[in-house]
Design brief:
5 strands, alpha+beta
Length: 138
Amino acid sequence: MINSRNIEELHPHVAALCHAFISACAQRSIDVIITSTYRDNESQAALYAQGRTKSGPIVTNAAAGQSFHNYRLAFDFCPVVNGKAVWSDIATFKQCGYIAEKLGLEWAGNWKGFKELAHCQYTGGLTLANLQAGERLA
C-alpha cells in the first residue's frame, strides 16, 4: 500500500503548485504540512472502508480509482501551530483554501456536498472518467 506524503510523487505541475502553496501560506505566517500526496488504489480502498466496514469516521467519499490522489493530482495538508498539526482551526483552513484557489488549485472546502478542508487538487480540466479511461495531465 502506498499513501505518500512526498510532494515529488505528484504530477510535476501539481508538485510545483503544492510548493507554491506552502510558500504562499508561509508568507502569511501559516505553517502547513503535507499529509498525503499520491495514494494507490489499495490505500484509497482502505480509507474508503473507514466508517463503512472498518471503525472510525468517514473521511472520504472516493473509492479506489475515484480520487485525484490516485492520479497524482491532489494533496492534503494541515496547518501547524507550535510544531503540532491543528485539525480544528477552521478559520486557518479557510485562509489556506483561499490561498490554494488564488494559485489555481481546487479547494475541497468549497465543495457543495462532502467538504474536505484539508484537500486541494488540480485537474487541468480532466474528469475522473477521463483519468479512468487512461487520459493524463500533459
